Amino acid sequence: xxxxxxxxxxxxxxxxxxxxxxxxxxxxxxxxxxxxxxxxxxxxxxxxxxxxxxxxxxxxxxxxxxxxxxxxxxxxxxxxxxxxxxxxxxxxxxxxxxxxxxxxxxxxxxxxxxxxxxxxxxxxxxxxxxxxxxxxxxxxxxxxxxxxxxxxxxxxxxxxxxxxxxxxxxxxxxxxxxxxxxxxxxxxxxxxxxxxxxxxxx
Length: 202
Known about the structure:
The chain is α+β, with helices and mostly antiparallel strands. It contains 4 helices and 8 strands.
C-alpha cells in the first residue's frame, strides 16, 4: 500500500465518522466503513504475524490478498447472511485490490452478494469457501493454485464499503452440521481459524 492510499484510507475513515449522528453502532454503515478503513491501515502498518506452524492436519493456508495475513490468523466476526454454516471474516478493504487463493481451490458454483458477484469454492484442505463482494466471479469448474488471482474487490458504498467477504465451511473436514466458532455482530474475540482447527483436528 502506498502513502497516498494510506492517506485516502484515513480521510475516508474520518469523513465517515463525521457523518455519525448518534453513538457507536458496530453494524451501522458509517462505523463499519470507517473501522474497516482504519483496520486496513493498521494491518498495513504492523508487521505481518506468523501463522501457526502447519501440521499434518492443520492446512497451510495463505492470505486472501498479497501482503495480508494468513486465513489461519483471522477470527470470524459474523455469519454469512442467508447461507448457513459459513461463518466469515471481512478483509482487503481497498477497492480494486486483487484477491488470491489461500490454498489450491476449485470453483464449485456461482452465487451473488449485495453488492457484487460471489462464488463457492472447495479447497484442497477440504475446507469450503464463499467469496463475496467481487467485481466478477470466475467460471464454475475453474481451478486455482495457492496465491493465484481469483477476483477483485468491488468499489461500492453499501454496508461496510469495499471489502472481500470470506465465509468458511468445515463440514467436509469435521462432519455434517459442524461450523467454526464465530461472533455475530462484526466484532472480534472468537478464537482464530488456525487455533480452532488445531484443537478440532488434534
